[in-house]
Amino acid sequence: MTVGTTSEARRIKAKPAHEPDKRERILVAAEKLFAQEGYHGVSMRDIAKSAEVGLPIIVYHFETKLNLYRSIFEFRREIMEERLNDLGKIDDFDSEDAVERIVRAFIAPIVRSHATPEGIYHAQLVVREASDPQEATRGIIEEYFDPLARAFIDALRKAIPTASHEYLCWAYLFSVGALVMSDFDGRMVRISQGKYAGIPMKKKIAMLSRYIAAGIRASS
User: Fold this and answer.
1) Domains delineated in the chain
2) Alpha-carbon distance 104 to 129, whole Å?
3) In angstroms, rounded to a whole number, what is the distance separating the alpha carbons of residues 38 and 34?
4) Which of 48, 130, 132, 220 is most exposed, with the fewest beta carbons within 10 Å of its own?
């Protein structure tokens, strides 16, 4: 009786140590596949094969493909929270560099995350989701990215009180465009005819921050 109870206790205690690793492996594998093939181009069986788990395990953790897809964005939520935290640290909106600091809070965590293979796949996934005509049916951009957009716009209104709300909404979208295109470092080799291949992360953050901030101020 004692032996059986002890064995069962060990089994129950050991389970949580393994399950999070397996769940994370599924999320990472799914993120890569969705980034490469899009939401409709990937099946649950494809994900199970890539993650090297049985299909029932994925169903157990996520039930549906949509739940799994949404869980990827929840899994990467800390990047969004870092951007909001950095934005929340700015309180002197009258300073000369306020716009640059707002922009830096918006882009720096993203650029740093893109320095990892997983970060690149997540960036590609976000771009795919945002440009998908059916994205509104999933509500991911609205839930995970629109709050950041409004926070960014509100911060810019404090730093540039003379700018219209309409202009700042467009400024946000234009800023997203610049941030997205900055991920395509590989193309730099072609357009520079082999002279430049990538850029140090700190230099990239500084250059991109100045570029976006200058564009926002120039038209406001």
Assistant:
1) 2-73 (1.10.10.60), 77-219 (1.10.357.10)
2) 24
3) 5
4) 130
Distances (CA, A) of 86 to 12, 89, 106, 121, 164: 40, 5, 8, 23, 24
Q: Give the single-character DSSP code of 143.
A: I
Q: What is the DSSP string of 173-211?
A: HHHHHHHHHTT-THHHHHHTTTS-----HHHHHHHHHHH
Q: What pLDDT digit, counting tens, does each position of 92-145 carry? A: 999 999 999 999 999 999 999 888 878 889 989 999 999 999 999 999 999 999
When computed from its CA atoms, the radius of gyration of the chain, rounded to whole angstroms, is: 21
Query: Is residue 201 over pLDDT 50?
Result: yes
CA–CA distance, 73 with 122 (Å, rounded to integer)? 9
| Amino acid letter for position 218 | A
Contact 175, 212 (CB under 8 A): yes
State the pLDDT at residue 210. 96
Task: Tell me the average pLDDT across 50-76.
Answer: 95
Of 39, 124, 109, the closest CA to residue 77 belongs to 109
The structure tokens listed for 199 are 């850029």
